[in-house]
Amino acid sequence: MNSKSWQPTATKKILELRAAVLSDIRSFFFERSVLEVETPVLSVAGTPELGLESLETQLAGPRQETLYLHTSPEHAMKRLLAAGSGDIFQLCKVFRDAELGRWHQPEFTMLEWYRVGWDEKKLAQEAELLLKILLKNHYSLGPSKFLSYREAFDTHLAVNPLKKTTELEKKLAARGIDIPTEIDWNGLLDLALSSIVLPALDPSVITFVFDFPADQAQLARIKYDSGEKTAARFEVFFQGLEIGNGFGELTDPTEQRNRFKMALMQRKHQKRPVPPMDDKLLAALENGLPACAGMAMGIDRIVALVGKLPNITKAISFAHPL
Fold it and tell me: Can you give the pLDDT at residue 218?
């Protein structure tokens, strides 16, 4: 074993920056009377989302059941909202399998918060204010930019991403992008977003991209605009990095159950793990989830931005080696 393998991956300076970020976040929400909560890390239901994989463990003893480390506190926090908690936020560790790279770790810290009676546009304004507080002493920030997913693709690829055509694949191929042979439409959109659209955004400006394709948000409301369906979802980017994901939350239990069923069927078809459906979340929705908007931010990415770090490894006390 390397004699230095016991040492932390983060320096004292970065630990101090991290503590300041967490303190500023708590102060921000306390000043706005948003309640800090804590929910379980272990759940009887893993995530059905196609873009994520849960880590699982076995509970010993007479029950011997499979439990899942949460990929987000979303389901449990929505159960609190349905029980009447009001506006809430949480800072916690979350876990995702098959994620390890420059900006990914299997264990990382997430901020998640919910505002009752808000939509995603109002929530984005609050997210912008929070980010400017966290980043203002480290960057010269100009006015933030707000644009739709369709506008972003139209500007940088001259295609409409809300309509499935062969034009997008042609545009990517013309730019020398290597396209996997077995890629679905959403995979193609993600490839275009990461390889063409995001690198073209101004890295010095906080940019919010709204109204993602309708089938790219399992837990968001669906909206109709000029005959086109979009999800009440946005992502926020800075310095070429995605640092947050927000939703106008889906409150319809029947629609949510149908989406879960579809995702689990797709997982089975793809020969991927098929966790149990989260019946407790669905029961909470049936009881009545208030209209709300919610957002998640990656704290380690924010610390890396504040510390001007090349990846999140040094933003975490004991990161998993790359």
Answer: 85
